[in-house]
Structure formats: structure tokens, C-alpha cells
């Protein structure tokens, strides 16, 4: 928040014209688009990034500033950090366990329950 205030102060008044719509768009996307969507073929983050079940090699739990994440190592590409600080964490893990192929890393992680 302090950084945002400093940025607005340093770019006044024109910076506000750029920052306000950008912040509004970020808030709208965050509120309207689900962070994690479990699909029959894999997972989507924010409706943009798609991960196929067979692309997952390992999954581990971690926290950043007290917020839980599942860190997914992929066969190709960068690691995914799936947010687990959702309204129904148990439901998300149950859905992952029911949709992921048995024996996969994501299935093993989800079946182990809330971490």
C-alpha cells in the first residue's frame, strides 16, 4: 500500500489516470474469475493458464506470508504455484483427488488432505 501511495505521489496527476483503471481491472478479475478451476483434462489458473494432468511430475505444500500453496513441478515449463487459500480448501482437494488420474503426483497430494 505504501508503494502504491508513493507511486501515485511521484506520478501525480497523470499516474493516477493509468493506475486507477489498471487496479480496477485487477480487482474485477480477482473477484470475477475463479483462481483455480479443475477440468477433466487438468487445471486452469485464472482461466488463462492450463495444466494437463500428465504434465505434473511432483507437488509439494508450502506457505508464503502465511498463505498456503501447492507448488507443482512440471515436465516442461515453469513451476506452478496453485493457491490453496480458497473458501473451500477441502472441497478443492477432494475435487482434485476425484479428477486427477490415480497414481499421479497431484492425486497423491490431494488425497493426503489439507496440509
TrEMBL record:
Identification of the protein by name: Uncharacterized protein
Amino acid at each position: 500500500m505504501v508503494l502504491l501511495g508513493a507511486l501515485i505521489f511521484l506520478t501525480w496527476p497523470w499516474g493516477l489516470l493509468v493506475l486507477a483503471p489498471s487496479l480496477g481491472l485487477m480487482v474485477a478479475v480477482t473477484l470475477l474469475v475463479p483462481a483455480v478451476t479443475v477440468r477433466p483434462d487438468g487445471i486452469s489458473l485464472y482461466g488463462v493458464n492450463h495444466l494437463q494432468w500428465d504434465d505434473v511430475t511432483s507437488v509439494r505444500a508450502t506457505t508464503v506470508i502465511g498463505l498456503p500453496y501447492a507448488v507443482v513441478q512440471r515436465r516442461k515449463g515453469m513451476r506452478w504455484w496453485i493457491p490453496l487459500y480458497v473458501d473451500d480448501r477441502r472441497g478443492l482437494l477432494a475435487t482434485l483427488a476425484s479428477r486427477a488420474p490415480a497414481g499421479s503426483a497431484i492425486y497423491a497430494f490431494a488425497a493426503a488432505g489439507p496440509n
